[in-house]
Every structure is written in C-alpha cells, then in structure tokens.
Amino acid sequence: MAKKKEENSKGLDDALEEIKQRFGEGAVMKLDEVKRVDVDVIPTGSISLDTALGVGGVPRGRVIEIFGVESTGKTTLALHILAEAQKKGGVGAFIDA
Q1: 25 and 5 in one domain?
Q2: Residues of the domain holding 65
Q3: Which of 26, 31, 62, 69 lies at a C-alpha separation of 20 to 30 Å from 39?
Q4: What is the pTM of this model?
Q5: In this structure, is residue 2 part of a structural domain?
Q6: DSSP readout, 19-83?
Q7: Is residue 96 part of a domain?
Q8: 14 found inside a domain
Q9: Quick check: 93 pLDDT over 90?
C-alpha cells in the first residue's frame, strides 16, 4: 500500500513539474506548499475570496473564467473585479456571452 502511494506521489510530482516547465512557475501548485508566488493581482472586492484564492485576488494580465449556476453572483463578481482594475488605472471589458 505504501509503495503504491509513493508511486502515485511520484507520478503527480512528475506531472506538476512538466506543467511548470511548459507554462511557467506558479501555473500549478499543491495546496500544502508554503512558498508564495509573487503575482500582480486585482482584488475581487471580497477579502474572504481574495484569501481563498491564495494570492490576494485574480492574476493581472491573465484570462480568468468565472462559472457557476445562475443567480450565484458571477456577474457581480466580474463587475467588482473590473471596478478594482479601473481603480488601479487599468482598462477592462465585461463581455456577457
């Protein structure tokens, strides 16, 4: 049992390393890793969500996707993020597709 768990862990580590090499440091990480990746972020407007995201907001300069069932606050969240970006002098667009 311990050997199988060790093999699974090695497979996961290999996959994570390949993703890091392909997409860069911080593209994927284990939740139990202590080190913090320095990423320029846009706050969401919710301190709790910013904390849960692990970096203090959504990463600046990257495409993000917000999804969920209807009436869960997706549009509100997107507009809050857009407003925070504009407060920092950024330019953004809200596309309702």
Answers
A1: yes
A2: 38-90
A3: 69
A4: 0.61
A5: yes
A6: HHHHH-TTSS--TT--------EE--S-HHHHHHHSSSSEETTS------STTSSHHHHHHHHHH
A7: no
A8: yes
A9: no
